[in-house]
Amino acid sequence: MLGIKEAVERLNSGGVVAIPTETVYGLAAKVTNLQAIQEVFTLKRRPSDNPLIVHISSLEQLSEISKPLTELELSIINKFWPGPLTLILRRKKKVLDAVTAGLETVAVRMPNHSICLDLLQRTGPLVAPSANLSGTPSPTKKEHVQNDFGPSFPILDGGACTIGLESTVITCRSDYLSTTIKNESVYTKTPSHSDIIIYRPGAISEQLLSEFGSVHYYSASQAEQDYPRSKPILPSPGLKYRHYAPKAKVQWLSSFDLLRAVTETSIVLLLDKNQVVNQAQAVEGSISSQELVQSCNLVECEGSWERFGQLLYDTFRVADIENYTHVFVQDIRQSTARSSLKDAIINRIEKAISGQ
Ligand code: AMP
Ligand code: MG
Question: pLDDT tens digit string along 321-343?
Fold first, then answer.
């Protein structure tokens, strides 16, 4: 484990350090250091065509990375930064191709985490993709980083991540969808009439963004239709990569499925245990709350969506480490409860279910 001073020293001398943010832990390197950035790709086993998010602590740092902002971008930034929102902006030429995977745009975020902001102030902009091996669930606490990179990996500890889900990724320029990559023109069928396009849902929801203009969610399945898998280029390259999936089989749990879920090899994640148990009691032979607690590994969130988001990846990781065969997750898709986290949580669970 590193102190902040050591973390700054390591990063400034070209090292790679795992750092805390409010979303997930990041694997950080200086945005200007090509070797360190390549080390990040190697460590994560991340394909080099999957660009990195640059983390900054001030608008001054932003101006080193991106060209001037539009009014819309500026007002969105003023409202949501620091926070779990990544914007895809026009890059300055000096940004390394390794960071953007050759795109003319760059993804940038100002994290809402005091230790991370302090670090960024001292190091300058850092790339920081999630500090996990590509394909494993994102790390939401230091132990997760250690699981993937070993117990002596340099980590700046900032406690458990308060959100626990990756940032929302958006662009405010529909013309970015017909961007150019290494002078090769890319055509996209994405509707280009929206003011804001969401590539990845996160804690900053479609509803929160709609205050600033029309919003279109460009989903991975839409991307799959528009771009057959053989094509290497997508408007947001991460859309084509497998994410968030544990080895255990992940399934939605309806109240009626409760009996099936109750086995020693199942881990069950519930937003609201009482609600599930009460509904299940309508089914003949159903189990009581007490029986449920005793017969499987039950993770419950007492109705808190924040807690549900925080515990999702941890549950996936526990399932893998402790060899559970199934992860059952309360089916929240039809829930009438409103939360800005709902779309992001459903998105991550669906990815885990489909293994994509
Ligand atoms: P991660 O670092 O794994 O949270 O993923 C960052 C994701 O942001 C990538 O997988 C891309 O989908 C997206 N992204 C990063 N840079 C760009 C960019 N310049 N244009 C479009 N999408 C980007
Ligand atoms: Mg990641």
Answer: 999 999 999 999 988 888 999 99
For the CA of 50, the nearest atom of ligand 1: 10
Spatial CB neighbours of 338, under 8 Å, sequence gap ≥ 6: none
Q: How far apart are CA 247 and CA 289, in angstroms?
A: 28
Instruction: Report the candidate in 177, 172, 174, 214 with the shortest Cα–Cα distance to residue 76.
Output: 172
Q: How far is the CA of 256 from the centre of ligand 2 (A)?
A: 34
The closest of 187, 175, 220 to 350, measured between CA atoms, is 220
| All structural domains of the chain | 4-226 (3.90.870.10), 249-354 (3.40.50)
CA–CA dist 263, 327 (Å, integer) = 11
- Both tokens of 242, joined, read 């497998």
Give the residue from 52, 26, 266 showing the smallest Cα distance to 144.
26
Kindly give the interhelix angle for 305-321 and 342-354, rounded to the nearest 10 degrees. 20
